[in-house]
Design brief:
The protein is an alpha/beta fold. Helices cover 33% and strands 19% of the residues. It has a five-stranded parallel β-sheet with strand order 2-1-3-4-5, sandwiched between helices. α3 runs parallel beside α4. The longest helix has 11 residues. It binds 1,3,4-trihydroxy-5-OXO-cyclohexanecarboxylic acid. The site of 1,3,4-trihydroxy-5-OXO-cyclohexanecarboxylic acid has 10 residues, from loops.
């Protein structure tokens, strides 16, 4: 199985960005552990701060599933929602924080309705749980 993680804006700052919300671990360090935990899964990773680049990555994805943390674009981007609708590869929406317990604007997801499902609030473990959702029959 081949999966692709796409991280959106500001997620390159994990480790130092608002550690009380997002923890103090870099994504690169977690990714190494995730690849070990997901033995037998080919796990690709892409991060961009730019909406159009995220859309291009969705269009170009050649894999069995996409784990997408669109960051703040989750709450604003009809264009990313349209891109997800336009591709055949299933997408799971992921958040590190429990967006439902944060400011009202974060309760709105433009992409939730076009994704297979959403996993939020489990810290970096949210990515592992999303991968399991693709792997478990
Ligand atoms: C986030 C939640 C978003 O509201 C926020 O803009 C992010 C990160 C999360 O993973 O918890 O950048 O997607």
């Amino acid at each position: 199985m081949k999966l692709l993680i796409i991280n959106g804006p500001n997620l390159n700052l994990l480790g130092t960005r608002e550690p009380e919300i997002y923890g103090n671990r870099t994504f690169e360090s977690y990714l190494m552990e995730l690849r070990e935990m997901l033995d037998g899964v080919e796990l690709d990773y892409y991060q961009s701060n730019h909406e159009g680049d995220i859309i291009d990555a969705l269009h170009e994805a050649d894999c069995d599933g996409i784990i997408l943390n669109a960051g703040a674009y989750t709450h604003t981007s009809l264009a990313i929602a349209d891109a997800i609708k336009g591709i055949q590869v299933p997408v799971i929406e992921v958040h590190i924080s429990n967006v439902a317990s944060r400011e009202p604007i974060r309760h709105v997801s433009m992409i939730g309705g076009v994704c297979q499902g959403t996993i939020a609030g489990f810290g970096l473990k949210s990515y592992f749980l999303a991968a399991q959702a693709f792997i478990i029959e």
